[in-house]
Amino acid sequence: MDDILMKLFGEGKDLTTLQMCDRAIVVFIIAFILIRISGRRSFGARTSFDNIIVILLGAVLSRAVVGVSPFVPVVVSCLCIVLLHRLVGWMIAHSPRLARIIEGNKMLLYDKGEFIPANMGKALVCHEDIMQGVRGAALTDDLTKIDRIYMERNGSITTIKKEEAQ
Asked: What is the mean pLDDT of residues 146-162?
């Protein structure tokens, strides 16, 4: 059995193309399981906190594919990363104060016809960045139809349209 595993997956850095492909298939399945354990938040919310898991899992799991690090410790360390992400996500969901510390707050960039330069500076956005968000979210570039514009905690720009008179 050990001979078959060695032929399929190899050992160390001197791997054949087939062995790397075999490892990639297994790592893909493991990554899928880890992401399911982590929860939808990892790829849904896309805050800085959530991007950490994507970057870390990619970096660490790649080591298992190319044989730079031992396979089992790589998988176990990734499981630890995912469980830590899930724990912190749970804590954020139950503590608004912790959520503000880790993920920040939304920022008002435009309110009732006026841009808010101080908040634009904090958010590191210019008028054109905001207008790009308006065009994408509200499908217009007419600010007379817009009441407020926010930069959300995940960096996206959202708009609140003015209520139409009945």
From this structure: 89
Its pTM stands at 0.68
The CA distance from 37 to 52, in Å, is 16
**Are residue 15 and residue 65 in the same domain, yes or no?**
yes
Note whether residue 73 is domain-resident.
Answer: yes
Q: How far apart are CA 66 and CA 21, in angstroms?
A: 10
Q: pLDDT category, 99, cuts 50, 70, 90?
A: confident
Over residues 131-144, the pLDDT tens digits come to 998 898 888 888 88
Q: Is the pLDDT of residue 62 over 80?
A: yes
Distance CA 165, CA 37 (A): 47
Do residues 157 and 150 touch, judged by C-beta distance below 8 A? yes
The range of the structural domain enclosing residue 9 comes to 2-100
Select from 51, 82, 100 the last residue of a domain. Answer: 100
Considering the domain architecture, whether residues 16 and 82 belong to the same structural domain is answered as yes
End-to-end CA distance of the chain: 76
- Is the Cα dihedral 36, 39, 44, 46 positive or negative? negative
Residues 72, 11, single domain; the answer is yes
Q: For the CA atoms of 110, 115, 117, 121, what is the dihedral angle to 10 degrees?
A: 50
